[in-house]
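Severity: low
Component: inverse-folding endpoint
Summary: output formatting inconsistent between runs
Steps to reproduce: submit the following structure tokens with default settings.
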């Protein structure tokens, strides 16, 4: 008779869920707790970000962590707190560059004074227009203008009079024509008509031509003097207008300039404005109504208000500290600005007034927080951001301008200094991919800020959950929680973290649960959320995404998928797997079977042969061969051909968490030992037979429990789990109640032998000093079977005996 093993230790309910005692929290409701939304458990990340901000000039940083951990909110909160203590950056304005109008000039203006500069210049232009009109309509200007022209007219008459007197002496008269001065003969003090000139006697014509030749040099000299006089007149006229204009506008410019003497760049530009106004007085002249073609051309010329307008790109609050931006618009233009155009009479025009800034302009002197995923999804944005960080300057340019086949004339605004710290937010996977693909990531983003998705579960962090609820309640997002509700939220935090000694930092998950629990309480007319509301919210959240789970369980219950829960079967073990359905993961049993026969010494993974197995699952199956050879085949080769398979599995299989169940099914076949079908197994195995921790232990146990409850709990059902998973167990209270009542069990094991004894009710056995296994033990039966297979393999491989010699004669 086979020896019977001692009863295996079972896990108590207290081992499978760490409760949070509401009394230990130290409050009745969260109304007594100071509100806070500061991220708890992220102190290393906070220190890294602080380093990035404090280093000389600021170091750009990459913040990594799983989504939902509050990375972005925490970074913005930390940076905002620091930025409040830093000086506000200057306003940024663009103005016309009079030396090269296609290169608008950038000016830094003290914080909050950009609009004041724009208003001062607009007022200056309006006042200058009035002053100029008054000056040029004044009697003083008219008198000086008249005197100038009278002097010119006098000198013109004197020049022409001298020339005319000399010509008359030679019998030649001068006639002014649109084409110049014409010479005609004079007879009897009267110029001849063209008909008379045509009938002139030859001698008279000869004398006239000689006189004209004699007058050629004096007339050319006189006309040259007249041209010089015209140029002098124009210069004197311009100088008069300049003198009058300067007299009219200089004091206006000086008044504005006095307000900006503390900003040398602005003061210098205002001096240029004074000179440009004088050089473009025609812009201030009254505009007469023109026909459409001429109006179209005139419309392309800017008015004085447009020419001297100040375009304020960035406005800073003098008392607001440094900017902290996290823009929603991550388009190229939203980040780096753009040049806009306007159409007038079919003509497309632009100038400095149509420049628009982006987030990098607004974040100058502060911090810019960007989602790496969005940045990489925007064409050309990543390349331009690297250019900004490498060069330390920001250029405004439309992204397509440099890629057009026939680029048009477009403004090239003066670049501005890019004095900002950029913080990229990315998942660890995306950051790793960026780091591997682009060497600039390490060079430009020198600080790595890693957010953890979990934190130690301590009284302080438990109370941190209460502080978060208190903040949400203060903001009106939920009623206050009582202590029991906070305790339920804490237990859920440990469940999400997958560890009794840890809490999740996934802020989004917590906020959603708090909101839904608060909604349930309000719907019931209560002003305080209870533990029942939290549990109800969690159950409802699960139920909304549990369609796949329900369908799979229905398929098992109606025996479309075969899962045995009664009796004992050789070579068949109920393993456990986890599936994801949207935001919900659920566990379910899988029937694992094994067969064995003499062969070449390896275990066939049918899933792998069917190309349904992932590499981790294939590795787990290969370990089985190592275990069998290492434990049972010290003196002879492993001579079996075994196969294992997930029955009725029609999709990919990955992971090694079923390797213990696969090994148990194979050992059952080799020992010819039936295994209990009411007990499921999860755990991975190493080559020495040690059971190793797996993921999803809560979902797996609860999935098997749910099926057993549907079919009827017997008290003999349960799950074998790795002992190392106990600290990660946060089982549903329904499972704990069944365990407490003795209707369901959980066995933590450390070795494959412990699991064998639970499944078969037989002793696994140990080796004695001679290396022999305990008689009638499972291991002894397995070794005996393998030795028999080895002998059979040797016999089948031996050559047949030689035939006796033929002695017949």
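Observed output (run 2 of 3):
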């Amino acid at each position: 008779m086979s020896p019977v093993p001692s009863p295996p230790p079972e896990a108590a309910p207290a081992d499978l869920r760490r409760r949070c005692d509401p009394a230990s929290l130290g409050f009745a409701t969260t109304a007594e707790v100071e509100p806070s939304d500061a991220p708890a458990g992220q102190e290393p990340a906070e220190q890294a970000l602080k380093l990035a901000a404090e280093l000389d000039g600021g170091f750009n940083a990459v913040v990594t962590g799983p989504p939902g951990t509050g990375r972005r909110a925490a970074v913005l909160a930390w940076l905002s707190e620091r930025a409040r203590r830093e000086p506000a950056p200057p306003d940024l304005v663009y103005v016309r560059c009079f030396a090269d109008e296609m290169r608008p000039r950038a000016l830094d203006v003290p914080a909050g004074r950009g609009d004041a500069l724009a208003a001062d210049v607009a007022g200056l232009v309006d006042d200058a227009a009035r002053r100029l009109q008054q000056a040029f309509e004044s009697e003083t200007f008219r008198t000086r203008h008249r005197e100038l022209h009278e002097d010119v007219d006098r000198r013109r008459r004197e020049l022409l009079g001298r020339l005319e007197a000399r010509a008359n002496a030679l019998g030649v008269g001068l006639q002014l024509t649109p084409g110049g001065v014409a010479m005609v003969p004079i007879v009897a003090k009267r110029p001849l008509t063209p008909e008379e000139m045509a009938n002139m006697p030859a001698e008279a014509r000869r004398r006239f031509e000689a006189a004209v030749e004699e007058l050629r040099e004096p007339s050319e000299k006189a006309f040259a003097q007249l041209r010089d006089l015209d140029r002098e007149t124009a210069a004197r006229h311009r100088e008069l207008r300049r003198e009058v204009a300067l007299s009219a506008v200089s004091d206006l410019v000086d008044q504005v300039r006095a307000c900006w003497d503390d900003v040398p760049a602005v003061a210098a530009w205002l001096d240029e404005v004074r000179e440009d106004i004088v050089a473009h007085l025609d812009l201030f002249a009254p505009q007469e109504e023109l026909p459409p073609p001429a109006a179209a051309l005139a419309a392309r010329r800017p008015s004085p208000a447009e020419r001297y307008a100040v375009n304020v790109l960035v406005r800073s609050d003098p008392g607001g500290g440094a900017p902290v931006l996290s823009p929603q618009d991550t388009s190229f233009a939203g980040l780096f600005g753009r040049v806009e155009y306007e159409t007038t009479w079919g003509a497309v025009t632009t100038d400095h007034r149509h420049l628009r800034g982006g987030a990098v302009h607004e974040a100058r002197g502060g911090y810019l927080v960007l989602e790496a995923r969005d940045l990489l999804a925007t064409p050309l944005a990543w390349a331009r951001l690297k250019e900004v960080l490498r060069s330390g300057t920001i250029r405004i340019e439309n992204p397509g301008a440099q890629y057009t086949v026939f680029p048009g004339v477009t403004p090239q605004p003066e670049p501005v200094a890019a004095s900002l710290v950029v913080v990229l937010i990315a998942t660890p996977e995306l950051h790793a991919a960026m780091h591997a693909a682009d060497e600039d990531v390490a060079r430009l983003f020198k600080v790595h800020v890693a957010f953890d998705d979990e934190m130690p579960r301590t009284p302080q962090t438990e109370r941190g959950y209460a502080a978060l609820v208190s903040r949400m309640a203060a903001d009106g997002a939920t009623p206050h929680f009582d202590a029991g509700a906070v305790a339920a939220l804490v237990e859920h935090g440990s469940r999400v973290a997958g560890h009794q000694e840890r809490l999740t930092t996934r802020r989004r998950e917590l906020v959603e649960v708090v909101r839904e629990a608060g909604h349930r309480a309000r719907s019931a007319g209560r002003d305080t959320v209870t533990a029942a509301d939290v549990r109800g919210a969690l159950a409802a959240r699960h139920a909304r995404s549990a369609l796949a789970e329900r369908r799979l369980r229905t398929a098992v219950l109606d025996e479309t998928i075969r899962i045995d829960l009664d009796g004992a079967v050789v070579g068949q073990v109920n393993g456990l797997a986890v599936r994801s359905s949207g935001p919900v993961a659920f566990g379910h049993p899988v029937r694992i079977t094994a067969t064995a026969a003499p062969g070449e010494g390896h275990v066939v993974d049918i899933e792998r042969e069917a190309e349904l197995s992932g590499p981790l699952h294939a590795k787990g199956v290969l370990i089985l061969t190592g275990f069998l050879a290492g434990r049972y085949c010290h003196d002879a080769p492993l001579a079996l051909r075994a196969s294992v398979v997930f029955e009725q599995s029609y999709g990919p299989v990955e992971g090694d968490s079923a390797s213990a169940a696969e090994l148990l099914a194979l050992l059952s076949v080799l020992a010819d030992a039936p295994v209990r079908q009411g007990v499921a197994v999860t755990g991975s195995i190493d080559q020495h037979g040690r059971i190793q921790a797996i993921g999803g232990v809560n979902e797996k146990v609860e999935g098997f429990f749910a099926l057993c409850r549907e079919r009827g709990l017997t008290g003999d059902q349960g799950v074998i789990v790795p002992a190392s998973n106990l600290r990660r167990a946060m089982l549903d209270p329904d499972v704990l109640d069944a365990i407490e009542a003795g209707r369901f069990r959980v066995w933590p094991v450390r070795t494959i032998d412990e699991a064998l004894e639970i499944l078969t009710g037989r002793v696994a056995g140990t080796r004695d000093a001679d290396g022999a296994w305990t008689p009638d033990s499972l291991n002894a039966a397995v070794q005996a079977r393998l030795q028999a297979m080895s002998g059979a393999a040797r016999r089948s491989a031996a050559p047949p005996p030689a035939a006796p010699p033929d002695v017949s004669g």
